[in-house]
Automatic annotation (TrEMBL):
Subunit architecture: Homotetramer; dimer of dimers.
Gene3D superfamilies named among the record's database cross-references: Phosphoenolpyruvate-binding domains (3.20.20.60)
PROSITE patterns given in the database record: ISOCITRATE_LYASE (PS00161)
The reaction(s) this protein catalyses: (2S,3R)-3-hydroxybutane-1,2,3-tricarboxylate = pyruvate + succinate
Keywords from the UniProt entry: Lyase, Magnesium, Metal-binding
One example GO MF annotation: methylisocitrate lyase activity
Family: Belongs to the isocitrate lyase/PEP mutase superfamily. Methylisocitrate lyase family.
Lineage of the organism: Bacteria, Pseudomonadati, Pseudomonadota, Alphaproteobacteria, Acetobacterales
GO biological process, one term: propionate catabolic process, 2-methylcitrate cycle
InterPro entries: ICL/PEPM, Isocitrate_lyase_ph_CS, PrpB, Pyrv/PenolPyrv_kinase-like_dom, Pyrv_kinase-like_dom_sf
Protein name as annotated: Methylisocitrate lyase
Amino acid sequence: MTYLVGGEAPSESAGKRFRKLLDAPGILQLPGAHNGQAALQAKDAGFQALYLSGAAMTASMGLPDLGIITIDQVEFFIRQIVRSSALPLLVDGDTGYGETLNVMNMVRAFEESGAGALHLEDQLLPKKCGHLNDKKLASADEMAMKVSAAHRARRDLVIVARTDAAASEGIDGAVARAKKYIEAGADAIFPEALTNAEMFREFAKRMPGVKLLANMTEFGRTPFYTAKEFEEMGYSMIIWPVSSLRAANKAQADLYATIARDGSTEAMLPRMQTREELYRTLRYHDYEALDRSIVETVLPTIAA
Ligand SMILES: C[C@](O)(C(=O)O)[C@H](CC(=O)O)C(=O)O
């Protein structure tokens, strides 16, 4: 299948498809896909939905995750992932790129680009990775207004409200904010940077009936828990936001070091995706077959 045949694209909106997966039994597993190639590889591994991380997008552009990219740049990532994989995608909306109207503009832009869900956080700019120190928070009311704006702007997009409050306001503060964000129209809550299983359980216990997202980012404050363990703790979604980029970047650094050392890439061959694997992942032959089929339709062979 290729994205070039419009009739083969899913007819149901990405938002509706994302919501169905979220409502299905079991935890929805959302590995980060930082570009179209990663999306295809995740799809081939069997995942039904994906996550687009702000940290991974910016890092792939050689930039820090401080909220300095633009909506247009994010749309470029959303489109390539949706086109290549056709999977419902949860997109990192950071702080919403401004205030109420900017949030609404972002929601429209992301939904029109093919996103199925987004998350919006209660930090102030310059925002930071949720697992770092000294985050500056917006007031709960300011954030609730953004959530309400996102809710008003969306057609089917699923709205996840993230709170970064646990570090500075404790679980009580994070729960109070989360309840306010749900009242304002959020479909789900992302409690960021909880540091142990007790906190995850406590948060879930105090938010009964609310869909919750767990962030299993590496090198952060959350210890490793599996998807199953988060499900048992009461979570409905899990993201591994930056993992694909971290793995790819490490391999890339090794490649450059190898070339600098050997003047050759040969030692890296066992760790490279082969041409055959690349073309298979890209569905290269489907594009060729499509091209041939058009030629055959328009230029039928004329009997001599
Ligand atoms: C989820 C996150 O916002 C992201 O951009 O993917 C980051 C991930 C990270 O920096 O590890 C986060 O703030 O947790």
